[in-house]
Write a structure and sequence with these properties.
16 strands, binds adenosine-3'-5'-diphosphate, globular, alpha+beta, binds magnesium ion
Length: 367
């Protein structure tokens, strides 16, 4: 079966947003400095303002970089879900389980058609599990410029290292805080939050990395958490509408990414063209769609994106997906770069490919 979900025209997704459930963390896990999985919050970090005028390229030679060409499927997420289910003695009640990154691509699809995406999905016990379809090592697009792409990518991780501590402020030594500029940058280490959320009629379980905590984690489960998302971006040059527009487009991705996990605050480190940290600016996630719309109106320019359209589009797409993926096998979800639609078609008649782990199935059989 081959089904197609048209993205255009967008008019049908305009208007008030479908109901959205506030994301609630119900579990978490960590990858340590060797990217080894731990069912705990050991890689949690706290935010503390970074030293300005820092060279974000410093330490690139010692960067401990995660090899993201290895396909990790949904393994860590499933292990965390299984552990939660063992504690509760019942399966989680989600219609869709996936990484936050997959939902980000879907929600952004109405306003972003440059990259395209491919995912694999399978139905298992009334729930659709979606993973990224990895196609060998990523073909990095090369942009001519004085600074290698790899170094520019490092800046983002360096900023995270400059802004975080492994314990709250009161429990971290002054020496640690002041020496952050010389700490080894390691992106193998991550804290991942696993939340339950909802878009329209679909209950979702999403897992995704969060960068840091602003203060303390509430002790009552389900309470909003003061997470902080850290981002770097090129400084917006004065009177340069193109710089501003590029940043306002980026804000859509920041907003979606943070909205999906319930991250309330985004801290942007603005940097010079040659990678020096100039200043930081805080954005309240929920205010971003209105902020960008107002800025466009004030500049007499057409809107760039609409948050309600993102939500309503994703909600309608999930309805379509749940209607389409209705028997066994593995399905491909594909949007070609520039395409006005998303295709869903079967690639394996039976089984669940590598999406569902044996461990997860063995556990679920016992339930
Ligand atoms: P910046 O976003 O500050 O440039 P995240 O913000 O999602 O926690 O990601 C941290 C950093 O990982 C990013 O920092 C960027 O350097 C890198 N990164 C994340 N997603 C990427 C992608 N799709 N392509 C290239 N680099 C990416
Ligand atoms: Mg991060
Ligand atoms: Mg970040």
């Amino acid at each position: 079966m081959n089904a197609t979900f048209p993205i255009q025209p967008l008019g049908r997704f305009a208007g008030d947003s479908e109901p959205v459930k506030r994301p609630k963390e119900f579990a978490c896990f960590s990858y340590d400095e060797d990217h080894k999985f731990h069912l705990d919050d050991s890689s949690l970090k706290w935010y503390y303002p970074p030293p300005l005028n820092t060279d974000l390229s410093k330490g690139y030679e010692t960067f401990v970089q995660h090899d993201d060409s290895i396909d990790e499927h949904l393994d860590s997420l499933l292990e965390t879900i299984a552990s939660h289910e063992k504690e509760n003695g019942k399966p989680i009640d989600a219609n869709v389980v996936t990484w936050r990154g997959m939902m980000t691509k879907i929600m952004a699809a109405p306003f972003e058609d440059r990259d395209g995406f491919e995912m694999n999905a399978t139905l298992y016990r009334d729930c659709i599990f979606i993973e990224e379809h990895k196609i060998g090592p990523k073909q990095e697009q090369r942009f001519p410029g004085p600074i290698p792409q790899e170094v520019m990518q490092f800046w983002g991780y360096k900023f995270e290292t400059l802004c975080t501590m492994p314990a709250p402020w009161g429990e971290t030594s002054r020496e640690f805080i002041e020496s952050r500029d010389s700490h080894v940058v390691n992106n193998k280490q991550q804290y991942c939050s696993v939340v339950r959320t909802g878009l329209g009629k679909t209950a979702l379980c999403l897992g995704g990395e969060v960068d840091a905590l602003w203060d303390v984690k509430p002790t009552t489960p389900g309470q909003p958490i003061n997470w902080v998302e850290l981002k770097t971006s090129a400084e917006i040059r004065p009177d340069n509408w193109r710089d501003k527009e590029n940043f306002e487009r980026k804000l859509m991705k920041y907003w979606i990414q943070s909205f999906l996990l319930g991250v309330p605050k985004i801290i942007v480190g603005f940097r010079s063209r040659d990678g020096f940290l100039l200043r930081t600016e805080e954005f309240e996630t929920t205010a971003i769609p209105t902020l960008v719309a107002a800025s466009r109106r004030a500049a007499n320019r057409a809107p760039l994106w609409d948050g309600n359209v993102c939500i309503n589009f994703a909600s309608a797409f999930l309805d379509f997906l749940r209607h389409t993926i209705n028997d066994e096998g593995v399905w491909r979800i594909r949007r070609m770069a520039g395409s006005p639609h998303i295709e869903v078609f079967k690639v394996e008649e039976v089984g669940h490919g590598n999406i569902i782990t044996d461990n997860f199935m063995n556990w679920r059989i016992k339930l």
